[in-house]
Structures are given as structure tokens and as C-alpha cells.
Design a protein that fits this description.
The complex is a heterodimer of chains A (436) and B (257). Chain A is mainly alpha-helical and 436 residues long. Chain A contains 19 helices and six strands. Chain A folds into two domains: 270 residues, no CATH class; 155 residues, no CATH class. The longest helix of chain A has 34 residues. By secondary structure, chain B is an alpha/beta fold. Chain B has a six-stranded mixed beta sheet with strand order 5-6-7-3-8-9, with helices on both faces. A three-stranded antiparallel beta sheet of chain B has the order 2-1-4, covered by helices on one side. The chains are: A mainly alpha (436), B alpha/beta (257). At the A-B interface, helix 1, helix 6 and helix 7 of A face helix 3 and helix 4 of B.
Chain lengths: 436, 257
């Protein structure tokens, strides 16, 4: 314990832990990003917290690796190798205090971020499941692995540049994992495979709170990071080149295994059935939200029922309202006609529930660009304004001149119809409101 | 006082080497050395390249003999048997490395832990070692703030902390000023009654003033072993040197070549 205390005080351990907290919390709290404005903001629920913490490993993991390498080089730098080799304690035992100090510090830093997030999650939702736990555990294990493999490499290659080069390489790897996988939508998509990305500890936010990290992916990652950690400890403590080569076996074996076991397609996330199960309000008409957003049901029922009453004017109009349990990028998959109207509760789409219920969700992506958006926006404005009994098209968001133009024409066309034919025309407009 | 300390010894001398051969790189730096060192302060003298450091590194269990045998405290170091022997050894290497961010006390404490001392004894042993090395007033300063001589004394403190029965000091007086050297000799004299101290040096005056026994080496072989007085007596006025010991040293080395 005494040796551990000295290591904590005098090695890079506390600095590392402090930097882990500073960098990650600095980003999460101090900078604006998808982590604090997406539908899966880092404090919105447990899985999001766990996933955004893994995202922050983009910078934190290379830091832990570099700190490990710096620490691993210490005995050579200090010139104590010979003295140490005459100690009764084995190399294995000697490695424990510095390893423990650095691992404890890094993991404690990760825990601090978790606690800061957890307090806010507790305030934001009462929904709880344990699916996030493996995600957080893998994050911590990855830090332990980074420290150990860093220390091992630092000992085997005790050069001044080892730590910075390792850190830069790791940063490049974690960054590529975030932006260069197939279908990542960036200019360099496909540069690295999904398997490669999953061998780094980072995870991307999905703008979708109804997903969870597949348990088998976490399990395979545990295997991989354990392999890395064991190899790191071997490199740190084994004496002689042959033994050090032997120490590589766990990482190589785990690496091969995991590369074949990890999903090559986009299989990291799967639908979180428990979180997306429906919870409905008492009474009618039927209004339901996901279990994840159960806390907010009361807030939505009034608006939803009011919208349903207005929608009753349409022939074959929807008679129930449900939260659309899809991600931000999947909004266009929500059906725009049928017996159920959909709404969103999230930051992006959840601003105007009534408008969404009346006219359907706004179009997310149009192949033909602005022309498509304008058409869709105009139809939605006309549908909503008619259902609200306005005397002219009213839009809460400012429309483009083109859209205003189309909306005006459509409005006049609907209004020119006899009153009994108008509902059918509006129902048709509503059904095609989101066509580009 | 532990049982090991009070148990009667079953060996004639703390260090015994028979036909010892130790390589330093490709060179056989210690060659067919027969040596027996008991309680007392043994000064190892010899010109550069005589094999002094190689011998001490072998006794410190850094190097394995490539021939002959060596016994420390009646045991042959090797395999799993090394740990109990290592607990009884204090070693100051010629190139003494240290963790510069540690304080003197932390470093000596850390070494005490590495030497598997009982936890309860550590604080007191650390203080005693620091006092004996005359670093009391700097005990809580970081090693990187110390002068070269003080660092050397910190090295002596770490070697002493486990009350070793075999204390191996390779050039311990390098960097010490005259006053510190005198103090160091005082320390050696205080150890001479219960410890087997092996001091490698090329300063004949260190040997004259603090050693009970002189070992003279040349090209890996033992040239002479005896008291400083015997060494002095070996020389005559015609030999090179400013003191009787230096003349004895020159005479014996001259005869060996």
C-alpha cells in the first residue's frame, strides 16, 4: 500500500486521471456537440451516457496509452534496471504498484465522468435498465488495457519518442474508427473496416435513443482488451527477448479471434426492445410513448388528444397517437397515413408535437434537394392550417419564397373545393405530405 | 530481531568463491577467482579493468557465474533460491539510478518494500538508514534537488535499509567531499562488527582508513588478500607511490604482471 501511495503521488498517475476528467468533461460540458443536443444526449439516459463516454475515449484512450508508455520507460530512464534486478521481489511484483497507480487513476477518471453524468441522468429519466453496464465496463477495461500495453511497449522500446508516437497513432486509430468506417458518410468512409473500428474502444452516438450496444460486441471487445492487457503486463515484466515475444501471443490470439468474431457490417447497435416498448395513457383516444420516455407521457397526452380531435375531421384519419420510436436519421421511415399518427419527443423533432401529429413529421432527406423540401413543407403547412381552421396558410417556421408560393396555390385549390370535398382532399395531401 | 538474525550460521564465511569465472560481455572479467570474505570491511582494489565491478555485480546476483561457484551466506544463488539471499543483500551499483521525483525517504521506503522487509519495521529502518547516510535534513527533499554527493549517500541509505548481512558498495565514495568521505569511513567502521561489507574502490586511502581486509585484483584474478598492514609491508621505498599502502599496491601488482 505504501508503495502504491508513493506511486500515486510521484508517478504520472494522478496527472493522467486528472487529464482524463478534464478532457472528457471539458468536451461534454463545455463544448456543444451531438452529445448535448442530439436525441440521445449524454445525460438523457443510461445507454447514451455509456456510449458518449466511449466516444470521448477518442482523446482519452491515446492519453492513457501515452501515459503508460511514459511510465513503462521510467526504470530505463532512471537507470535503476540493475538495482531492481537484485531485489527479492520479482519483476511481476515490482510492476504492481506503478501499474495499479496508473490503472486506478485512469479508471477513477472514467468513473468521475460517469458519476457526473449519472447524477444528471437520474434527474432526467426514471427509466433504468442494465444494458449500458457492459458498455461502461468495456470502456474502463480499455483504459486498463491502454495503460498496460503502453507500459509494456514503453519498457521494450524505452525511447523518448515512444510515448508521443504511440499516443498520436492511437488518436489516429480512434479518429478513423469514428469517421472512416463504411457508411460513415464522410469523405474518407470505407478507409477502415467495421472490425478495425471495433478493435478501438470508441463508439459513435447514433442520434437514436432506442438502440443499445449489442451484448456480443461488448463480449468480444472484453476478450480483445483482456488480450491486450495481458500482453502489456507480459512485455512489462518478462525478461529477455524470447519471453517478450511470447508475451505477444495473448494480444495476437485475441486480435485474430476478435477480428473474425466482430460484425463486419453495421452490427454494433441493436434495437432496445425494452426501452422502445409502448406505454399508453389511460382513457381514449389512445396516446402512447416509449417506456424510455414514460416520464413525459402526461406532458404529451393533452396536445396529442387535441390533435387527434382535429384529425377526426379527415376521412380515415388517425385515431391514435404514438411516439415514433426511430432515430433522427430514420424519420422518413415513419408512415404518414394510416390509423396512427406519430410524434417525437426529442430535441430535434419534438418541439411541436401538435404540428407533427397533424401534418406528419418533417421530411428529413430529399434526393432532389430544396425543390423536394419546399413541396413537402408547403403541403404540411396547408394540411396543418386547414385542420387548425386558419384563414390562410400559417407556418411556425419561416418558409422559403418557393414553398410559400406552392402553399398559397395549394391552399386556394383546397379552399376552392366544396366544403364536403375538402376533408378528402386534405387527407390525400396529408398522405403525400412528405413526398419530395 | 528476527529468527534468521539470531540463528547460528552454518557457513564459515559470508562470501565464498571457488574458481569463479564471470563474463562481462565477451571478456572473462573474473577468471578462476578463489575468495573467502567474512564479517568485516573488505576493500577491493585493483587497476581499471581488474574485474572489481564484475565481481561485485556477480555477488549482487546481477550476473551469473559462467564457471566455478559462488556461495552467499552458505547458499548457491540460483533459481528459486535467490529471494532469501537477495533479502540479505544491500547493493550500491557503480551507476546508481534513482527515481528523481521521489523524496529521499520515499525512495528508501520503496526500496525497503522491494526488499520484502516486514511492513512494521519499514518506517524505523528507513529513518535509521537516512540518519546513517547523513541525509536527515534532506530526507523529505526530492532526489532531483540533491547534489551528486548526496545522491551517492541516498544510494548508500537504500543499500543499508534492510540491515543487509552482505553489503556491496561499488565506488561508494565517488562525488563525496573530504568531510563526507571521513563520515563514510566512520559508517563502514560501525558496520565492520556484524556485516560483510565489500567496497570496490580505486582510492587506496579509503582502504587504509576503513577496511579490515584488502583484496587486490588484477585481470580477474586475486593477487593479494590480507590486512592493510600486510599490504603496506609488501612495498619498499623503491616502489612507486606516496604512502606505504600505495607502494605495497604497486609492488604486488608489479610482481603479478
Amino acid at each position: 500500500m505504501k508503495a502504491l501511495k508513493i506511486e500515486l503521488r510521484r508517478s504520472v498517475a494522478l496527472w493522467t486521471g486528472g487529464l482524463v476528467v478534464l478532457i472528457a468533461l471539458g468536451m461534454l460540458l463545455g463544448m456543444s456537440g451531438p452529445w448535448n443536443r442530439g436525441p440521445d444526449g449524454w445525460t438523457s439516459e443510461w445507454t447514451s451516457l455509456a456510449v458518449w463516454q466511449r466516444f470521448m475515449l477518442n482523446m482519452v484512450w491515446p492519453l492513457a496509452l501515452g501515459a503508460g508508455a511514459w511510465q513503462g520507460r521510467r526504470d530505463r530512464r532512471a537507470g535503476v534496471d540493475e538495482l531492481m534486478s537484485t531485489m527479492p521481489k520479482t519483476a511481476f511484483q515490482r510492476a504492481v504498484p506503478p501499474v495499479a497507480a496508473l490503472c486506478l487513476s485512469a479508471v477513477a477518471g472514467y468513473l468521475v465522468i460517469f458519476l457526473v453524468g449519472a447524477v444528471q441522468v437520474l434527474g432526467n429519466t426514471s427509466y433504468f435498465d442494465a444494458d449500458w453496464l457492459p458498455v461502461t465496463v468495456v470502456g474502463m477495461l480499455s483504459l486498463v488495457a491502454a495503460v498496460l500495453i503502453g507500459m509494456g511497449i514503453g519498457r521494450v522500446l524505452p525511447y523518448l519518442l515512444t510515448a508521443p508516437i504511440l499516443a498520436v497513432l492511437a488518436f489516429a486509430a480512434t479518429t478513423l474508427a469514428l469517421v472512416a468506417t463504411p457508411s460513415s458518410g464522410s469523405d474518407i468512409e470505407g478507409t477502415v473496416s467495421n472490425e478495425f473500428a471495433l478493435m478501438t474502444p470508441v463508439l459513435k452516438g447514433q442520434y437514436n435513443p432506442f438502440l443499445k450496444v449489442a451484448a456480443d460486441v461488448s463480449a468480444v471487445q472484453v476478450l480483445w482488451f483482456l488480450g491486450l492487457a495481458v500482453t502489456g503486463f507480459g512485455l512489462l515484466t518478462f525478461i529477455g527477448r524470447k519471453a517478450q515475444l511470447l508475451a505477444l501471443v495473448p494480444a495476437v490470439a485475441a486480435g485474430l479471434f476478435t477480428f473474425f468474431l466482430l460484425p463486419s457490417h453495421d452490427g454494433v447497435y441493436e434495437r432496445d426492445e425494452a426501452a422502445s416498448a409502448l406505454v399508453c395513457a389511460d382513457g381514449g383516444p389512445r396516446v402512447c410513448v416509449s417506456r424510455l420516455h414514460e416520464d413525459d407521457l402526461g406532458e404529451y397526452v393533452g396536445q396529442a388528444r387535441e390533435a387527434l380531435t382535429k384529425l377526426a375531421k379527415l376521412p380515415g384519419g388517425p385515431t391514435s397517437a404514438e411516439e415514433a420510436r426511430v432515430g433522427y436519421f430514420d424519420v422518413d421511415t415513419v408512415p404518414s397515413s394510416g390509423g396512427t399518427a406519430y410524434f417525437f419527443t426529442d430535441f430535434w423533432n419534438g418541439k411541436d408535437i401538435e404540428q407533427t401529429l397533424l401534418a406528419g413529421p418533417a421530411r428529413f432527406r430529399c434526393e432532389n434537394g430544396m425543390t423536394g423540401y419546399d413541396k413537402s413543407a408547403a403541403r404540411r403547412v396547408v394540411v396543418a392550417s386547414w385542420l387548425n381552421g386558419e384563414s390562410k396558410p400559417v407556418s411556425r417556421k419561416e418558409l422559403t419564397p418557393q414553398a410559400t408560393d406552392i402553399a398559397g396555390k395549394l391552399w386556394n385549390e383546397v379552399r376552392a373545393l366544396p366544403a364536403d370535398q375538402q376533408p378528402a382532399r386534405v387527407a390525400a395531401l396529408r398522405a403525400e405530405a412528405r413526398d419530395c | 530481531m528476527s529468527a534468521a538474525e539470531t540463528a547460528p550460521t552454518t557457513y564459515a564465511s559470508e562470501i565464498r568463491a571457488v574458481g569463479l569465472r564471470v563474463r562481462a560481455g565477451r571478456r572473462m572479467a573474473v577468471n578462476e577467482l578463489d575468495l573467502s570474505l567474512g564479517i568485516g570491511v573488505h576493500g577491493i582494489l585493483g587497476p581499471n579493468g581488474a574485474g572489481k565491478t564484475t565481481l561485485i555485480r556477480c555477488l549482487a546476483t546481477v550476473l551469473r557465474p559462467s564457471g566455478g561457484s559462488v556461495e552467499l551466506l552458505g547458499r548457491k544463488p540460483g533459481g528459486t533460491d535467490l529471494r532469501p539471499i537477495r533479502r540479505e543483500i544491500g547493493y550500491l551499483p557503480q551507476q546508481f539510478g534513482f527515481y528523481s521525483r521521489f523524496t529521499v525517504r520515499e525512495f528508501v521506503e520503496y526500496m525497503a518494500w522491494l526488499k520484502e522487509m516486514p511492513k512494521a519495521e519499514i518506517p524505523e529502518a528507513v529513518q535509521r538508514a537516512i540518519d546513517r547516510a547523513d541525509l536527515t535534513s534532506r530526507a523529505d527533499d526530492k532526489l532531483k534537488t540533491l547534489s551528486g554527493g548526496m545522491v551517492r549517500r541516498a544510494g548508500i541509505a537504500q543499500a543499508l535499509v534492510n540491515n543487509p548481512r552482505i553489503l556491496l558498495l561499488d565506488e561508494p565514495t565517488v562525488g563525496l567531499d573530504p568531510a563526507q568521505r571521513m563520515q563514510f569511513r566512520e559508517l563502514l567502521r560501525s558496520l565492520s562488527s556484524d556485516t560483510c561489507v565489500v567496497v570496490s574502490t580505486h582510492l587506496v586511502e579509503d582502504v587504509a582508513n576503513a577496511c579490515t581486509d584488502v583484496v587486490l585484483m588484477r585481470e580477474g584474478r586475486l593477487v593479494f588478500q590480507g590486512t592493510p598492514e600486510t599490504l603496506a609491508a609488501a612495498g619498499s621505498e623503491s616502489e612507486a607511490g606516496d604512502s606505504p599502502l600505495e607502494r605495497g599496491y604497486s609492488a604486488l601488482l608489479g610482481r603479478a604482471s
